[in-house]
Amino acid sequence: MTDGSMHADYARGRDDGGKGSRAELVYRYRFRALAAVRSAPMLRGGRLLDLGAAEGRTLGEMMRLGGPAQAVGVEISTDLVEMATRLGFPVIAGDVQDLPAEIRARRFDVVTAMAVLEHLPDPAAALRSAFEVLAPGGRLIASAPSPFWDRLAGASGIHKEQAHHVHEVDGAFFRRTASAAGFVRIRTRPFMFVGTAFLPYLGLVPPVELAQRLEAPFSRFPFSSIFINQLFIADRP
Ligand SMILES: C[S@@+](CC[C@H](N)C(=O)[O-])C[C@H]1O[C@@H](n2cnc3c(N)ncnc32)[C@H](O)[C@@H]1O
């Protein structure tokens, strides 16, 4: 079976300007962090849990942009947890489908699971775990690649990380599993316009704030196939 966990090479690819750096990975994690923060105003001064935090760069960006009072990430790969510690990001080892006891004992205002659900054998278990640790009124923000673009990127070899995807997660799946976990006000929207998402492969990296501003009007229309990602939002009653 495909292994959904990632390793040190992935983190090196996200070291902006470093050896092995890959512009498309840097662009994507910054884009996801900004999209998450913009969807969770309660993050400012609140408590953030980031599921599948890798080496913590996306978490670090959400902390910088969103200003939570407390933040912690959970990651299954011990290589990546060690790297997060070296980089100064608060990531602990654990499985997001069955959270460590020290996390289950805490409550959070925002739980993020960015580009993670598609890596899990049991994404529904991760949604139940998120529900359990959210405070009443708290919010889950998740993202997953659009299944169409993900298959294409994998088949063409352009996006090597696709090999670690064990599930296709679409809006219908998210609505069904989030609702079964107890979430309400479940919303999904496409994001990351394909035209700008592929520019970093050509060495052109648009500022993520500008890219999100330009694509925002289009995400309300029913052409979701022009976006390579989906954003999922759900609230705990
Ligand atoms: C594509 S990366 C996304 C990293 C980060 N969330 C982001 O948006 O940049 C997915 C991460 O989830 C981790 N992961 C996979 N299965 C996991 C599990 N069962 N529990 C915790 N983390 C897991 C992988 O090792 C990898 O670091």
Structure description:
- It is a single chain.
- This protein is an alpha/beta fold and 237 residues long.
- A 7-stranded mixed sheet has the order 3-2-1-4-5-7-6, with helices on both faces.
- The termini are far apart.
- The model has no long low-confidence stretch (mean pLDDT 91).
- It binds S-adenosylmethionine.
- S-adenosylmethionine binds next to helix 2 and strand 2.
Keywords:
alpha/beta; Rossmann fold; seven-stranded mixed sheet; 10 helices; globular; binds S-adenosylmethionine
Major beta-sheet overview: 7 strands, mixed
Molecules bound to protein: S-adenosylmethionine
Q: What share of the residues does DSSP label as strand, in percent?
A: 15-25%
Number of strands: 7
Q: How many angstroms separate the termini? A: 36 Å
Low-confidence stretches: none
How many helices?
A: 10
Report the radius of gyration as a whole number of Å: 16 Å
**Succession of helices and strands:** HHEHEHEHEHEHHEHHE
Number of separate domains:
1
General shape? globular
- CATH class category name: Alpha Beta
Q: What's a concise summary of this model?
A:
With 237 residues, the chain is α/β, with parallel strands linked by helices. It has helices spanning 8-13, 23-38, 57-66, 78-87, 101-104, 123-133, 147-156, 171-181, 194-197, 208-215, and strands at 47-51, 70-75, 91-93, 108-114, 134-145, 184-193, 227-235.
